[in-house]
Amino acid sequence: MNSPNQPLPTFDEVLLCTPQTTAEQVGLFLRRCLIPCGRGEKIYTMLYADELSYDVSCRAEELFQHLQRYNSTYRLIILCNCEREHSYIPSVFSQYKVHMIPQRPLAEIQRYLQHHYRVAQPSSSAASVFKGNMCVGIVSSKRAGVGK
């Protein structure tokens, strides 16, 4: 948010982890992050890494330990749910843990995201479904099974 005109991360810089994420997917992601090849100053982010299965987490740690020897300038952020801090990945990387509290007010964060997710030329696209010609939206409900 310090550079409002800098683009958001691209698909190759973010891995959204689920219990179904495979070791191959994590391996490809870690290779992009840790193998030096002049891609600039990208910041790679693993979201919800605490949801990876035990086997995938073990293989990810092994690959990380192997590849990090070849690159000391990588930029990797691993975000986990604080309620699952005792799962494998958060435990392995606990020496690097930083408790993160948003430093900006919610309204400012929302304005920043609206700047990046607004469709520039509104047309007959899916963006017309979301408020303010946004190309993303969140639909949620406090009740299960209400068709959201």
From TrEMBL:
<dbReference type="InterPro" id="IPR031248">
    <property type="entry name" value="RNF213"/>
</dbReference>
<dbReference type="GO" id="GO:0016887">
    <property type="term" value="F:ATP hydrolysis activity"/>
</dbReference>
<dbReference type="GO" id="GO:0016020">
    <property type="term" value="C:membrane"/>
</dbReference>
<dbReference type="GO" id="GO:0005730">
    <property type="term" value="C:nucleolus"/>
</dbReference>
<dbReference type="GO" id="GO:2000051">
    <property type="term" value="P:negative regulation of non-canonical Wnt signaling pathway"/>
</dbReference>
<keyword id="KW-0436">Ligase</keyword>
<dbReference type="GO" id="GO:0005829">
    <property type="term" value="C:cytosol"/>
</dbReference>
<dbReference type="GO" id="GO:0006511">
    <property type="term" value="P:ubiquitin-dependent protein catabolic process"/>
</dbReference>
<protein>
    <submittedName>
        <fullName>RN213 ligase</fullName>
    </submittedName>
</protein>
<dbReference type="GO" id="GO:0016874">
    <property type="term" value="F:ligase activity"/>
</dbReference>
<dbReference type="GO" id="GO:0004842">
    <property type="term" value="F:ubiquitin-protein transferase activity"/>
</dbReference>
<dbReference type="GO" id="GO:0002040">
    <property type="term" value="P:sprouting angiogenesis"/>
</dbReference>
